[in-house]
Write a structure and sequence with these properties.
By secondary structure, this protein is mostly helical. It has one domain. It has four helices and no strands. The chain has helices at residues 4-24, 43-58, 63-73, 84-91. Helix 1 packs antiparallel against helix 3. It is globular, with a radius of gyration of 14 Å.
């Protein structure tokens, strides 16, 4: 069960991420958000889309904040150049 404190923490992280995006002026993922949440039928297609998203993340000025947001909120998709599986297999969470 998610507590009110947890929900408020998630909302705070979300607002911090949007503040970072605003301060950066623009981030590439805003132009093609579907690439970061693609649900392709074949695994090969999914891997290709993941690589496109990760490459877009490489030059992003808020990559670290984006990844940290995903780690703290456990959202799916490509965030900060990492997949859900990568974020949690490397952190042991």
């Amino acid at each position: 069960m998610t507590t009110l404190r947890q929900l408020l923490g998630i909302e705070r992280k979300y607002l911090e991420l949007h503040e970072a995006i605003r301060n950066a002026g623009s981030v590439e993922c805003e132009e093609l958000p579907d690439v970061f949440f693609a649900q392709e039928a074949s695994r090969d297609a999914q891997k290709l889309v993941e690589e496109i998203a990760k490459n877009m993340c490489q030059s992003c000025p808020i990559r670290v904040q984006c990844r940290d947001y995903a780690l703290s909120t456990k959202v799916y998709g490509i965030w900060g150049g990492t997949t859900y599986e990568e974020r949690y297999s490397s952190s042991g969470t």
